[in-house]
Amino acid sequence: MRKEGKSGATILVVDDEFPVRLMIRTTLAGAGYRVLDAGNARDAGFLMKAHRGAIDALIVDIVMPGVSGLDFASQVFTTHPESRILYISGFHGSVAVESIRRRSPANLLTKPFTGAQLLARVRELVR
Question: What's the pTM?
């Protein structure tokens, strides 16, 4: 995965909540990002394999049915160790959220968040 420039960067969004994915996709596309999105880790894996070109960053919900966002990110890191990931979660007090908050707070955005908050984090992630 490599950076292709701020406004042309490709972002993969993985969240099981359609309204959240739609808000993220709309916000990022409106700012000039190319957006791929999936409702679960399995579909996201297929998208990553099928996509021609770089995926500059991933936005991954931590808690999802089936494979969690943390497990998916771990799988991604095995083949793409340079991956940049922004974790999102509505479970503010969970062990996983608190662990990420302590280790790398810039890589965590808690729900609910605004489009402006999302864009600020993504710009930092892909610059």
Answer: 0.86
